[in-house]
Every structure is written in C-alpha cells, then in structure tokens.
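User: Predict the structure for this protein chain, please.
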Amino acid sequence: MNRPVEKVVILGGGTAGWIAAAMIARELGRGVDITLIESKRLGTIGVGEATVPTIKTLNAGLGLDEKAFIKAVNATFKLGIRFEGWGAPDSDYIHTFGTLGQDQPFCPFHHYVFRARAEGRDVSLWDYSLNFQAATRNRFAPMKPHPDLPRFDYAYHFDAGAYAAHLEKDAVRRGVRHIDALVEDVTLNPESGFVEELVLDNGTTVPGDLFVDCSGFRALLIEKALDVGYVDWDHWLPCDRAIAVQSEKLRTLHPYTRSIARPCGWQWRIPLQTRTGNGLVYSSREIDDDDAERLLLENIEGAPTTEPNRLRFRVGVRERPWCRNVVAIGLAGGFLEPLESTSIHLIHTGVMRLLWCFPHQGVSPHEIDEYNRQVRDEWAWVRDFIIAHYHLNRRDDSELWRHCAAMDLPDSLRHRIALYRDTGKALKACEELFGIPSWVQMFEGQGLSPRQVHPVAAALPAEELDAMLARIRHHIAGPLAAMPEHEAFLGMLG
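Assistant: Here is the predicted structure, written as structure tokens:
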C-alpha cells in the first residue's frame, strides 16, 4: 500500500531522533502529523560531544540563538582537532577548520607554501591558518569574512544529552507528539511489506505512513523488521570498541579536540565548560576491555565523575538506508568512529536529504534510489578521510598500526593519495564534507609530501612569493592579537 504521507513516526529519541523531529516539524509540521516514540528506560549512548562547523547551519535552520544554545548545552568552541602521535609517535598537528592562506587564481594556496619550503624557506602550512594560530594560543572570537584573511570557522563541544533535550522542547512546542514506551511488535502490510503500525508495551498502537528509524544500534525497523543488510568496513577501520568516561573540568579549556594515538587505537579529550569528555577507541584484537579501561583511566586529566561506559560497534553503513517506508537515521543507518566528529553532521544531512526527497504523494522508488545513492556516497567520502589517518601512519608499536599502513585501500582513496603524492593536487567532490584544506592538512600532518608543486605557483617570481606570504602573516597577526582567551570569551556570553 502506497499513499500520501500524512503521519510520520520517529522511533527513538536521543540526538538523532530529536534532530529529525525538530527539522521535520519546522519544515513540514503544518501539513504532517509527527509522533516520536522513545523509552526513557533504554537511555542513549550520548557521547557525541564534538562537532564540525555544519552544526551552525543546523542550529540556524532550527532558529536556535547561539548564546542560549551555548548556555543550555555547556558548550565550548572548537577550531579543529589536534592529532598527537598519528603520523609518528612524536608527531603533532591540528586539522583546523577554515582555510589556509588565500587561494590565487587557478592555484590553491598550499602550492605556494610547498614551493617556498622546497626552496629552503622555513614556512609551514599552519603559519597561514588563522584557526591554527588562535587554537595554539588558546584564543577565540568569531570573525567576519575579510578579503585579506584566511576564512575563520568553528564548531562546538557540548553535552549531547542536553542538546537532545533542547531540541525536544522545540519539537514538542511545534506539535510533535511524544510517547514514552517500548515497541513490542511491528505490523507489516502483507502485500507491500511496508510498516503499517507499531505495537507499544502500553497497549496502544501507532500507525504511520513514513517511519524514521532512530533506534540506534538496535535498528528495530530497518534491520529487525525489514531485514536490510549492512556493509561492514572493519577491514579498513579495525577498531570495534570504545570506552567513554567523564572527568573534572580541565584547568585550561583549549578550543580544540585532542585525538591521542595509542598502540591499541586512540583517545579523545573534549573540554566542556564544567566537565571533560574522555574516551578510548580501540581494537579488541589488540587489547581486552579491562586493560583498555585501565589505559583510559590512567591517561585522563582530573578525577573521573562517571562510571566508564563500554561500547561495541560495527563500522559500516546500511545497504539501503531507506527501504520501503522506513528511513534509518543515525546509528540505525550506520556507524563511523568519531575520529573527525562527523556523527551529528551525518544525522543532519540524512534528515536534510529526507526533506528534499520527502514522499508527499507516496513513496517513489526513484526518490528512494536517489536518497540511498547520496547517503552511500557521503558516508564513503567520510570513511575515506578517516581511513587515510590510519593508513598514513609511521608507527611500529603494534599490529594495528602495521596492518593499517600495509592494508589495501578503497579505489577512491588510493586515487586521492596517489594524485596528491605525485602532483600536490587534492580533490573535493561537490557535496563532500571535507574540503581541500582539510585533505591537505591531514596529508601534511601524516607526513605525505607531494613530489611537485603547481606550475602556476612555480612561475611566480620569488620576490612576489615572499611578499604574498609575508602579507598574509601580517594580516593574521592583527586580529589574533585582539582575540580574548577562549574561556574569557565564554565568560563574556553570560
């Protein structure tokens, strides 16, 4: 049975469910009845504490005031991710948001830096990143775009549970019906196989025309009811466990996330205003759960304030995130480890695509096909960026790192690396999250250097090259000196 969509049912709350509810209610709430079902007895994973700059687009679309948002979710600002020990045990670089220098006609800026370096000048890519210069000095203030400056951009660290609660209030205010119950059964139409209704443990049934599965790893609708398969990527991303724990507030609130490589995987450290998020992502082939927990607790700053939370996961994506009249969002649709803080972004874009393909007049197989193609492409782009961190390591302290350095790669990533190594050219697909500055910083930070520079950069007279580089450094110095310390700026927000 295929009919116009008048009733949307979202199964699961948490970040994924309430983002979906808030976005759909804001855009379609007058014409669509929306119900969200969750059980407070189940709880949520709730460790998605770091984000990428698209969170500002999501918040703006939902009409959230930044100051009120920061206060509600205990947020700090994030200018990038500091990778410690990833290229080699003593390596240290920051993948910053924003841009590097100023691109010139027909030639990205990084080629000019590489040319200057090849000619013996003591220069670094990050000399021309306003984000990096602010992050390493522990400074922050929003910057308006200026033609003489690299673009400055930022995201947030925040309490994911508080964010979901913030969105819940907005969604309910817009008419979303909220039911606290467990699903006991799923009724399928015997002819079409579409989900018709959910049978709840409170004795009621909830019918719907379109169901959004935000039930997390349980994947109650997309997997258990519709039996949609899963594409595993663990042969490229072998970490399959995580432990999360909160600890006391850090003495210094750095405006960046820390990612610290360990022999068994990597550790995150995320500064919030009143506490710190910590975690260890690791391979169960390298270390058992008890030893992993000890390793994490021995390497946090300040006393723990919660019990460690152990998580198991499968890295990969659903074969068909949209099947029949069920769309899987968040963990029900797939999982990529949080190395680049992409989980909320992928929830956001998954719901955006659903709104773009929304089946007002009934589910169309062509819309389903297009939605699934776009989701698979986006997840693969993010997957490749994460794989590259592991593959381009120069560590030799565990089987994990040796395996990753030697492993076969997806063809798409193999091509990117080969192109960059030979020519210094970095690619960006049209709708890809990570742009050229991100790929270049990651390649450079991991120790991959190109064999040549762009001919346009090579043709610039030496004195003009030096003047251009000096001019950009000068323009960065002015606003940098005027920036307050990160924590002082947070205090200014009240």
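The CA atoms of residues 84 and 92 lie 5 Å apart.
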